[in-house]
């Protein structure tokens, strides 16, 4: 009788959403083979589901600095044997063969992540989608084909993942001193709070997440996570602590289920501390963002990515406030200043080369 009553109670509660099971296939030549970039790719996928299988293609000894991240995420490598002109094409064909083999033989995997923007992969994407698989495409903007981008269920540019938006300049207090940095414990909590907020930003169709599901995502991203490290006996108490301290999360108890969501006014308290871009300081802000791309190993980027990252750091940015009518005019001014070179790719899309 108890089990029946319990079953009736459970039938009235919301079911936790299905967690995607991913297979990840990475073309190292396309992603630039930087450890930080590969880590960002893996983190992005783990926010969406669980990685059951991962393979990288084109591996050589010059990518030896990737060994730790590949081994810790149980990725296998397909080495690159350089012989003849068609060596790169051979790796592409191997990736296609392996992806189709997995799609046909592993029923657990329902989602695929293809890290390459080559239009040659469009038939593969089409076949995977025809089999009911979800396809996430990731590529550098300079190598991404519009055909491949449009074929995927979802597409992400590497520049938006491999390098975080550059931090905005600290606003000075009335006494002329910059705000002091927090202690290490407070910074650890701030980093955790930021990571949880990033998880919510990836959940486009979900306003609320079960606390158990959120902890599952967190442990996929940080396998060594333990709430006791932050002085809390349970994950629920840690969430309450973060909500009280930063105000970004909202924690509710819904019919015996702990639900977590983003506070509708998250970040509003920091609006007064934001530095606004003007005709005097905008070049420094753009240079900082361009330097972040360089550190991430990128040589060329799409201007739309640059604008998106500037807006992330400076939400009130507008071209007119710095003396321009269009963003393309800003790019031309950066070119005159010797910071970038404006180019057009084969599809007549504007790209900027970092100088």
What does this structure look like?
This protein is an alpha/beta fold and 355 residues long. It is 41% helix and 18% strand. The chain has three domains: 20-162, 5'-nuclease (Rossmann fold), CATH 3.40.50.1010; 184-268, Orthogonal Bundle (Arc Repressor Mutant, subunit A), CATH 1.10.10.10; 275-354, Nucleotidyltransferase, domain 5 (2-Layer Sandwich). A six-stranded parallel sheet has the order 3-2-1-4-5-6, sandwiched between helices. A three-stranded antiparallel sheet has the order 7-9-8. Helix 7 (146-151) links the parallel strand 5 (134-139) and strand 6.
Key traits:
single chain; about 350 residues; alpha/beta; Rossmann fold; Arc Repressor Mutant, subunit A; Nucleotidyltransferase, domain 5; six-stranded parallel β-sheet; three-stranded antiparallel β-sheet; 14 helices; 12 strands; about 40% helix; about 20% strand; globular; disordered N terminus
């Amino acid at each position: 009788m108890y089990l029946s009553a319990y079953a009736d109670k459970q039938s009235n509660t919301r079911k936790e959403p299905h967690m995607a099971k991913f297979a990840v296939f990475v073309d190292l030549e396309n992603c630039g083979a930087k450890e930080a970039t590969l880590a960002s790719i893996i983190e992005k996928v783990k926010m969406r589901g669980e990685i059951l299988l991962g393979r990288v293609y084109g591996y050589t000894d010059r990518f030896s600095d990737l060994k730790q991240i590949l081994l810790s995420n149980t990725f296998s490598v397909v080495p690159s044997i350089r012989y003849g002109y068609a060596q790169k094409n051979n790796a592409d064909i191997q990736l296609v063969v392996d992806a189709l083999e997995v799609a046909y033989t592993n029923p657990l995997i329902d989602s695929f992540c293809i890290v390459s923007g080559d239009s040659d992969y469009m038939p593969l994407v089409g076949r995977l989608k025809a089999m009911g698989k979800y396809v996430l495409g990731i590529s550098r903007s300079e190598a991404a084909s519009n055909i491949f981008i449009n074929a995927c269920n979802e597409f992400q540019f590497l520049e938006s993942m491999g390098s975080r938006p550059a931090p905005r300049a600290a606003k000075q207090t009335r006494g002329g001193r910059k705000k002091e940095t927090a202690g290490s414990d407070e910074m650890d909590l701030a980093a955790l709070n930021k990571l949880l907020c990033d998880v919510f930003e990836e959940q486009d169709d979900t306003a609320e997440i079960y606390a158990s599901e959120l902890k599952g995502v967190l442990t996929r991203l940080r396998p060594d996570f333990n709430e006791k490290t932050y002085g809390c006996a349970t994950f629920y108490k840690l969430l309450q602590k973060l909500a009280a301290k930063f105000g970004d999360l909202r924690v509710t108890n819904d019919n015996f289920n702990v639900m977590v969501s983003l506070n509708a006014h998250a970040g509003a308290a920091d609006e007064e501390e934001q530095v606004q871009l003007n005709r005097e300081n905008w070049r420094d802000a753009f240079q900082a963002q361009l330097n972040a791309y360089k550190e991430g190993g990128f040589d060329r980027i799409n201007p739309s990515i640059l604008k998106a990252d500037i807006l992330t750091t400076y939400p009130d940015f507008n071209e007119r406030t710095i003396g321009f009518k269009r963003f393309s005019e800003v790019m031309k001014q950066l070119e005159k200043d010797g910071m970038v070179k404006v180019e057009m790719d084969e599809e007549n899309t504007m790209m900027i080369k970092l100088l």
